[in-house]
């Protein structure tokens, strides 16, 4: 039995596990020359670089303890990943779970990762390790880094203010409760892939209007939810990868290095969508200038060695709590397997029980993908799909108005 010590930010996603189980889900279809045995060997190569993948998580002392040295309990074939993953126990099972489902069209691969162990950006780095292992046969020389000494230094350089209530908006976004407590809710996922032409048009429009793609996505998501909510505010937490603040050459960091920006801006759905985009952009620009994201992790990091676990979890709840309506942007995903064709890609956060809801955005193969993971009914799933379709319409109209000018 080998024990690996966790870092303070592992605790972030141990709060509210009964409401929101902390996972990252990656799905894609691979066809043509896929070599299953090679893929399995590649997974094992990844576990040598990130041994915590084969460990259970022990909450009481924030450690990862080995439970296997093989893919037993990690790799499953011929099972519904959404249904079967409900049995996954991060506190007794490995932090990695992979499903293979074969069909005439190829092999559907679904990879689940513990969000206690790593964030979305770390999940992307694991995909890069998997890609390298599959394409070259080796991960020799690769080392995973999880330390947060760089974050301690960053907090010393930027004395951000932790304002009570910042992460708890007075007018939060919400979706209506559609069913009573007796309705059958099941695990399900859905995604909407924007065309390559729309993706290109959005990139051009964002560059020429001086906003970011992330500003556009957040404004579109906020206004889409506003169609169903009695609020004139877009209050969202935007996770951000702090790896970009680390000096020196890039390192493999399959770890939790995410903090969050909080915005709360006025939004009138009767006004031009560009007004909401500009409000989100201005709020995010100020947050970035002020390093506001650091306030979401400052108290936890500075008190990690001073307080017991229960107190640390309360600190997380105050500054990093589970939002009923949430948003995440995984950015561009670079993943290729030699001699294979990869299609139908999506990347998601945790399954949220409706009316809780999250849209996750990623970009794969020059196309933007909107997606959600839900525990809900058919009716609730239709509402989730409607939110994504409204987002697509708002984003499309934004590019059309820009082109008309």
Number of domains: 2
What's the number of extended β-strand segments?
15
Q: For this structure, what is the CATH class of the largest domain?
A: Alpha Beta
Strand content: 25-35%
Tally the helices: what do you get? 10
Low-confidence stretches: none
CATH level-4 homologous superfamily of the largest domain:
Nonribosomal peptide synthetase, condensation domain
> What is the 3D shape?
globular
Give the fraction of residues assigned to helices.
25-40%
Characteristics:
five-stranded mixed β-sheet, 15 strands, 10 helices, Chloramphenicol Acetyltransferase, 2 domains, 405 residues
Brief rundown of the structure:
This protein has 405 residues and is an alpha+beta fold. Helix content is 33%, strand content 26%.
Could you describe the 3D structure shown?
The chain is α+β, with helices and mostly antiparallel strands. The chain has two domains: 3-136, Chloramphenicol acetyltransferase-like domain (Chloramphenicol Acetyltransferase, 2-Layer Sandwich), CATH 3.30.559.10; 163-404, Chloramphenicol Acetyltransferase, CATH 3.30.559.30. It is 33% helix and 26% strand. It is built from ten helices and 15 strands. The strands form four sheets. The protein has a five-stranded mixed beta sheet, with no helix packed on it. Strands 8, 11, 13, 14 and 15 form a five-stranded mixed beta sheet that branches. Strands 1-4-3 form a three-stranded antiparallel beta sheet, with no helix packed on it. Strand 14 and strand 15 (367-376) form a beta hairpin. Helix 1 (36-49) crosses helix 3, helix 5 (196-209) packs across helix 10 and helix 6 packs across helix 7 (273-290). The protein is globular, with a radius of gyration of 21 Å. The mean pLDDT is 93.
């Amino acid at each position: 039995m080998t024990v690996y010590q966790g870092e303070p930010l592992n605790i972030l996603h141990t709060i509210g596990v009964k409401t929101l189980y902390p996972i990252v889900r990656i799905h894609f279809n691979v066809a043509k020359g896929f070599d299953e045995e090679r893929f399995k060997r590649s997974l094992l190569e990844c576990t040598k670089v990130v041994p915590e993948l084969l460990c259970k998580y022990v909450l009481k002392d924030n450690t990862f303890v080995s439970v296997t040295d093989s893919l037993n309990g990690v790799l499953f074939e011929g099972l519904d990943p959404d249904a079967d993953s409900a049995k996954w126990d991060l506190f007794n099972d490995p932090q990695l779970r992979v499903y293979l489902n074969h069909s005439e069209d190829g092999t559907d691969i679904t990879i689940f990762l513990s969000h206690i162990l790593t964030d979305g950006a770390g999940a992307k780095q694991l995909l890069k390790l998997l890609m390298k292992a599959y394409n070259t046969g080796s991960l020799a020389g690769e080392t995973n880094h999880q330390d947060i000494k760089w974050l301690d230094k960053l907090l010393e350089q930027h004395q951000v203010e932790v304002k009570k209530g910042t992460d708890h908006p007075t007018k939060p976004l919400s979706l209506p409760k559609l069913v009573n407590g007796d309705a059958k809710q099941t695990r399900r996922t859905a995604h909407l892939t924007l065309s390559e032409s729309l993706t290109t048009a959005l990139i051009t429009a964002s560059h020429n209007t001086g906003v970011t793609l992330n500003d556009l996505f957040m404004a579109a998501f906020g206004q889409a939810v506003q169609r169903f909510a009695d609020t004139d505010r877009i209050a969202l937490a935007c996770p951000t990868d702090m790896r970009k603040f680390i000096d020196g050459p890039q390192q493999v960091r399959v770890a939790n290095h995410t903090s969050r920006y909080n915005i709360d801006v006025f939004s009138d759905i009767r006004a031009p969508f560009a007004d909401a985009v500009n409000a989100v952009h201005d709020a995010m620009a100020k947050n970035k200038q002020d390093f506001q994201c650091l306030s979401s992790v400052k108290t936890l990091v500075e008190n990690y060695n001073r307080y017991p676990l229960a107190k640390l979890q309360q600190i997380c709840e105050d500054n990093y709590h589970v939002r009923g309506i949430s948003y995440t942007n995984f950015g561009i995903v670079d993943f290729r397997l030699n001699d294979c064709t990869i299609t139908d890609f999506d990347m998601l956060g945790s399954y949220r029980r409706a009316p809780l809801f999250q849209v996750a955005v990623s970009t794969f193969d020059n196309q933007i993908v909107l997606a959600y993971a839900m525990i809900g009914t058919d009716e609730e799933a239709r509402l989730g799909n409607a939110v994504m379709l409204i987002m697509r319409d708002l984003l499309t109209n934004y590019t059309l108005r820009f082109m008309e000018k």
